[in-house]
Input
Amino acid sequence: MIDFTGISSDQIIYEDDYFFIIHDAYPVSPGHLLIISKRLVSNYFDLNPSEQFHLGNTITQAKSLIEQSLNPQGYNIGMNCGEVAGQTVMHFHCHIIPRYLGDISNPRGGVRGVIPEKKEY
Output
């Protein structure tokens, strides 16, 4: 299990009052970033209203960081909230996953693929 409290300052590529951004240690695609809360809370629903509001700005910042060196054609933005949803690190983090034309054979359904038999509709 990853422990975000052990992140070193040289891993942080951006930070503001509420969050910091790092490269994902196990990237799904080139440019995969994590937005991590500075305050130790379990998931999105434990963020306070200011943090929830500011998250949108930080997502936009993450997109800008990716596009400084890469040219994705799309994005998946995801948060796992609770063990049953696949969360293994109980410290809020949001995945910013750049997507590229042809990176999978059929991207239809996107995040619905977390339950594979529900992806096609």
